[in-house]
Structure formats: structure tokens, C-alpha cells
Design a protein that fits this description.
With 194 residues, this protein is mainly α. The chain contains ten helices and no strands.
Length: 194
């Protein structure tokens, strides 16, 4: 298995104060959207002066991008943990996909300004999420290849078609056209109870 690019893909671990700022910023961006959140709001809720906040982050855009990196690192850590489970490949694949999509969906779906967060993400941090998607793709590809090689999974084309369906369902969820049936069918195909 070639999980090294996935496992090594985590960005630096923020210092405790920076992590606290990122937590506050994520909460405020989620509650008020990117446009409705100011650096002054973030500083106040983090217990800092506005000038001190700028010592950590040069701009609101830079802070938002770091929040996106932070969220992606958490998603990637969940995917990594799922990929390394001591379980059959089908369960590990399902767990990895649930980890990524479930975590990101919870972050966005529970946010009053979720659609604005997605739009801001696409405008300000598309490269960050593209990198996350590539790392998850590598992890799932490795799991599928491992499962096929050891005989746990069947026809590669059929498995990959099902994975494609769940990825399309995720894209639809991101755009507000959520249909979880392809994901449920995929998990059923793998023999994994929802």
C-alpha cells in the first residue's frame, strides 16, 4: 500500500494559540459567513487585540485559507485513520469515504452560512480542497488495489464505478442537490451496513 503521500500530506500542526484562533474563526465563518465575519470579530472572540491577530494572520483571506487547511487536515486525518483500520478492505474504503464526506458535510451542513462557505472556499481556497481530494483519491485507490490484489474485492471496473457514483453524490451535496442514495448503494454493494 502506498499511503505515504496521504499520511505525509498533513500540513504543519498549529501552535495552541493559533489553533484557538482557527477554532474561533471557523465558528464565526460558519455562523456569519466569510463576508459577515471581520478580523475584529475574530480577535474579540479569541480574546485578542485586532493588531495581535494580524501578527498571526496577515489578512482575512489568509486566515480563511488557514481555516480551510485546518479543516482539510482534520478530514485527512480521519481518512488516514480509516485507511489504517484493522478491517477488510471494503470496510476501510467505506470508512475512508465516510470520514471525508461525513466530516466535511457536518462542517458545512450545520453552518447557517454553509452555501456561502462553499462559495468562498471555491473562490479563495480551491487549491487546498483540490489537494485534499487528490490525497483521498490516492488513499481510496490504494485500498481498492489492495482489496482486489488479495481477492477481497471483485471486478475493478464495478468497484470504481460505484466509487465514482458516491463522488458525484458528494459533488451534488456540495452544490445543494444532495442525494445520498448512490452512497448508500455503494456501501451496500461493498457489504457494509450503513
Amino acid at each position: 500500500m502506498i499511503l505515504a503521500p496521504v499520511l505525509d500530506g498533513l500540513q504543519r500542526i498549529p501552535a495552541p494559540k493559533e489553533r484557538a484562533i482557527l477554532d474561533v474563526a471557523l465558528r464565526l465563518f460558519s455562523q456569519h459567513g466569510y463576508r459577515g465575519t471581520s478580523m475584529e470579530d475574530i480577535a474579540r472572540h479569541a480574546g485578542l487585540g485586532k493588531g495581535t491577530l494580524y501578527l498571526y494572520f496577515e489578512s482575512k483571506e489568509a486566515l480563511f485559507r488557514d481555516v480551510c487547511e485546518y479543516v482539510c487536515d482534520y478530514a485527512l486525518a480521519y481518512v488516514r485513520d480509516a485507511a489504517l483500520l484493522d478491517a477488510p478492505y471494503a470496510h476501510r474504503i467505506a470508512a475512508a469515504l465516510r470520514a471525508k464526506f461525513g466530516f466535511l458535510f457536518r462542517v458545512v451542513a450545520t453552518a447557517p452560512f454553509g452555501s456561502e462557505l462553499v462559495a468562498s472556499r471555491d473562490t479563495l481556497a480551491a487549491d487546498i480542497f483540490k489537494r485534499l481530494n487528490r490525497r483521498v483519491e490516492l488513499a481510496v485507490t490504494d485500498l481498492v488495489e489492495g482489496g482486489i490484489a488479495c481477492g477481497e474485492l471483485g471486478c475493478p471496473v464495478e468497484v470504481l464505478q460505484q466509487i465514482t457514483r458516491i463522488l458525484v453524490a458528494d459533488r451534488n451535496a456540495q452544490s445543494g442537490r444532495c442525494d445520498s442514495r448512490p452512497g448508500q448503494r455503494f456501501l451496500g454493494h461493498l457489504g457494509v451496513a450503513e
